[in-house]
Amino acid sequence: MLNNLVEKPQDKILALMDTYKADTRQSKIDLGVGVYKNASGATPIMLAVKAAEKLLWQNQETKSYVGLAGDPAFSNCMIDLVLNGVVSQDKLAAVATPGGTGAVRQALELIKMAGSDTTIWLSNPTWPNHLSIVKYLGMSLAEYRYFNSETGGVDFNGLLDDIKKIPAGDVVLLHGCCHNPTGANLTSEQEDQLIAVLSKNGVIPFVDIAYQGFGDGLENDARFTRKIASQMPECLIAASCSKNFGIYRERTGILIAVTTNTQQRALTQGNLAFLNRQNFSFPPDHGARLVTMILTDKALHKSWIQELEETRLSMINLRQQLANELRQKIGSDRFGFLASHRGMFSKLGISSDLVEKIRTDFGVYMVGDSRINIAGLNLETVPLLANAIAQIIK
């Protein structure tokens, strides 16, 4: 049987990590993997998480299963964090999932169960795993324009033209904030125009919000998602706790469904629980328990907010520093957009050949489409990166 298997393409980001590890140059810079790193290059455990884990160790009395949907307290906390009451509770179904990726997978499974001929529309570009999972599930796939590599901003006219052509009943996957891989986000006015088209054409939004708190703050980062949830009759929301709580390996996420009424909510909740049962049975609880403790304890919540804000501002400062350095070295504002992007990622808009050259000549590792992880930089490596970019584009 196993001889019938065929090799699958290696994940490009994971392959890049392996190549980086094998590079013996001391000056090498890793801008590939999507993990936050502090100035010393470490991915620290947040103080609030440490404190919550200590309390959990002292007070937890069982490791028995939670329900198929996970702990209701976790769902309530996450619904409040993401939506903050813009949709009444009796219209919301939710299940805990193994990370934000698990939430994306379960959402696509739910869509497939509800309508096998539904097409999923993804931004061009998008997070590679979006494409991979949709293809693996054998679902119809299409793309809408998103990024203008010349300006480093959103190609909004192209985006809107493509969205207007999406048939009623199809699903459009949107990034809630901090677009991955480009870092370019819609303005509030553009969000309103997009939602108006989605509503008029009967298109169903599916929001992936993996970086709430990493862009313009917890509330502003949730703005687009809250608008969609409050103005559209139905939508799906996949949220991750990996980045904003720094609990990557705990695989903590949630899938939220906004429904039209209580009857549809009950039906959706049952189907979500069924999907959890088929895929992994009971969701992991450790990370979810920590998140619940942090969001419901005043002292832990205050500590988390403070550290999350420091993380956010550090990335904004690195962006500004890099934009300034590049302006000085190349004598133009070609990369000025880096300062206005938000989140961990930005797309430089250079060719794959130049990406390869910058890796070979300078030991700077970025994804082939020129996506860089801003959080992989520090005050010392920003000038090194700027110099490398300036050299290879001459």
Q: Can you describe what's shown?
A:
The protein is of the alpha/beta class and 394 residues long. The protein folds into 2 domains: 116 residues, Aspartate Aminotransferase, domain 1 (Alpha-Beta Complex), CATH 3.90.1150; 232 residues, 3-Layer(aba) Sandwich (Aspartate Aminotransferase, domain 2). The protein is built from 15 helices and 13 strands. The chain has a 7-stranded mixed sheet, sandwiched between helices. A two-stranded parallel sheet has the order 1-12. Helix 2 crosses helix 11, helix 7 packs parallel to helix 9 and helix 12 runs parallel beside helix 15. The N and C termini lie far apart (54 Å).
Short description:
Helices cover 47% and strands 14% of the residues. The chain has 394 residues and is of the alpha/beta class. Strands 2-10-9-8-7-3-4 form a seven-stranded mixed β-sheet, sandwiched between helices. A two-stranded parallel sheet has the order 1-12.
